[in-house]
Amino acid sequence: MPGSDSPDVILHGARFTTLDRGQPNASAVAISRRRFTAVGDERDVLPLAGPATQVIDLKGRRVLPGLIDNHLHIIRGGLNFNMELRWDGVRSLSDAMSMLKRQVAITPPPQWVRVVGGFTAHQFSEKRLPSIDELNQAAPDTPVFLLHLYDRALLNAAALRAIGYTRDTPEPVGGEIVRGANGEPTGLLLAKPNASILYATLAKGPKLPFDYQLNSTRHFMRELNRLGVTGALDAGGGFQNYPDDYAVIQKLADEDQLTIRLAYNLFTQKPGGEKDDFLNWAKTSTYKQGDDYFRHNGAGEMLVFSAADFEDFRQVRPDMPTEMEDDLDGVIRILAQNRWPWRMHATYDETISRALDVFEKVDQDIPLSGLNWFFDHAETISERSIDRIAALGGGIAVQHRMAYQGEYFVERYGAGAAEATPPIARILEAGVKTSAGTDATRVASYNPWVSMAWMITGKTVGGLQLYRRRNCLDRETALRMWTENVTWFSNEVGQKGRIAVGQLADLTVPDRDFFACPEDEIADTSALLTLIGGKVVYGAGDFAHLDSDGPPPAMPDWSPVRTFGGYAAWADRAAASVHQQAASACGCANRCAIHDHSHASAWTSKLPISDLKGFWGALGCACWAV
User: Fold this and answer.
1) CA 379 from centre of chain
2) CB atoms within 10 A of CB 455
């Protein structure tokens, strides 16, 4: 153990962007007991090292504070991550369908192949989704469920059979089971605009057993660490019941296996039973209960179902029912009396302004001052509503949903209406607490760099220029939206979000200089090194040797994570690169008995694939017996 006067870890030889306005840059930091204890110049920090201090040379890299997602469905996403084929970041439908076919080939019955959000048809060069006929040809016998945003799901014939949808299945409220001329379901489900039919159908699929869910959650956190994410606010979600569906994340927290700091909100599940939920939870849960890895963060994002304006821009904006105000008043009074903050899903200003009427009324009886409450999303919020939020001391948590749905918004409302959706620059100018996130994993991707690219460039992932420059952010402001700004939303201001003495030692070393790379490369960023509390939770490239505590291989053995990894199928691309390099470099005179010239066959092993000779040498291959 390091001595009491020497740091646990020293990082040096880097360009630290601290976001500390008193000391914006540094070349070295020291970490002790999970916090930064020195931030400054190498000549001052390196002499602090003791005999047991781990000293890491970052080789001139840019270093940023760890990224914090203000709205991520990480608990629900973790339970399912190992079952999901991710099309996030895949640039052509041809490639996406190739991935699907390969996954179908190894998925055993009665399991499904699921593509559950995180992508948009506009990201594909073909600018379309697959047809149901194409899904049937790719998977005649294996059920396939494909969720596109919150507007539709595509099911092949095998999935319809597995679920049991027939001509006699009644129409869902707020949705549609599209039927052919013969009355039989075609496989297309539409949210009109309520996404419940999409959720409910997905929930009919097989689930992973508990131990597999533990493994799945660890792999999802690992994927986030690979992208530089060190923290998140979990926004609950449909079909995510408390406390039952929190058992996995609680066990990981109890066993010190979390690699994401997590603040969770409680999301009501029963229309008409919202008050009962929050009354019961206020008796059994305490705001802020937990620690700096796993803590309770209040209520939401669903507070009352009568106030949920689903963001399907392919449908007409829904008008909230007349009972919205009464329902919301009852819940907000419970929360204010118990001093619980809340977050509220709200897409349209029409919903936000009505909710503010309620909040202002409650504030007259129970002052809301000091409660870190906020709206999520707020794409069409008005200047008047922004000013009302500022006056009440609330916040706005924005997410990059428009990066995935901007084209549909423009089709319905026009390019002029889309120029500030949401008006981030105006919100910041008004002094409203504002931060950024993703709303992953279904309506958008979990990749934080896509969110930052959207805020900086004003473009969708399909390349549409949504915003004029006046609503775009500079890179430092975008970074602050993903770091120190988020801490107000979890009531942790001063605890994290910057590289500063006394703050939690969370940081990431991107694979490119965020402040110098071209704008069109920002979204392609990933991490070379990520630390949480001074502990390495992800390492790659020059820092792969520091990464020794990752999860075991993804379970089950047919998991798409084993083949494709995650965003943009990075693992498959890495394996293909190794295959190509090995095939071109191989000096075998005869057929190799170890890898049979299928050089990517062992990519799933934890081996030094960045070192080609070491990779094949570790397999004992005679190709490298030189």
Assistant:
1) 19
2) 26
**Res 563 pLDDT > 70:** yes
Say which amino acid occupies 318: P
What the block records as the tokens of 296 is 């309770």
* pLDDT at 608 exceeding the cut of 60: no
How far apart, in whole angstroms, are the C-alpha atoms of residue 105 and residue 301? 38
Peptide bond preceding 108: is omega within 30 degrees of 0, i.e. cis?
no
Is the Cβ–Cβ distance between 156 and 143 less than 8 Å? Answer: yes
Residue 311: pLDDT band (50, 70, 90) is: confident
Please tell me the pTM assigned to this model: 0.93
For residue 279, what is the enclosing H or E element?
A: helix 274-284
C-alpha to C-alpha distance for 259 and 218, rounded to whole angstroms: 8
Q: How far is CA 481 from the centre of its chain?
A: 15
Handedness of CA 339, 379, 428, 392 (dihedral sign): negative
Residue 238 is predicted with a pLDDT of 87
Task: Give the list of residues 6+ apart from residue 416 with CB closer than 8 angstroms, or none.
Answer: none
**H-type alpha helices, 285-375:** 324-337, 349-365
Report the distance separating Cα 612 and Cα 594, nearest Å: 15
Which has more pLDDT, 579 or 157?
Answer: 157
Per-residue confidence at 302, pLDDT binned at 50, 70, 90?
very high
- Tokens matching residue 369: 């001052």
Q: How far apart are CA 91 and CA 106, in angstroms?
A: 23
Q: What is the pLDDT of residue 4?
A: 63
> What residues pair up with 113 in beta bridges, in sequence order?
144
CA-CA distance, 609 to 602, in Å (whole number)? Answer: 10
The two structure tokens encoding residue 256: 């010190």
Q: 261 pairs with which residues across the strands?
A: 231
Give the pLDDT confidence score for residue 5 in this predicted structure. 86
Pairing of strands 35-40, 25-32: antiparallel
CA 216-220-225 angle, to 5 degrees, is 145
579 has pLDDT over 80: no
Query: Could you tell me where the beta strands, DSSP code E, fall in 95-167?
Result: 113-116, 144-148, 152-155
Compute CA 380 distance to the chain's CA centroid, rounded to the nearest angstrom: 23
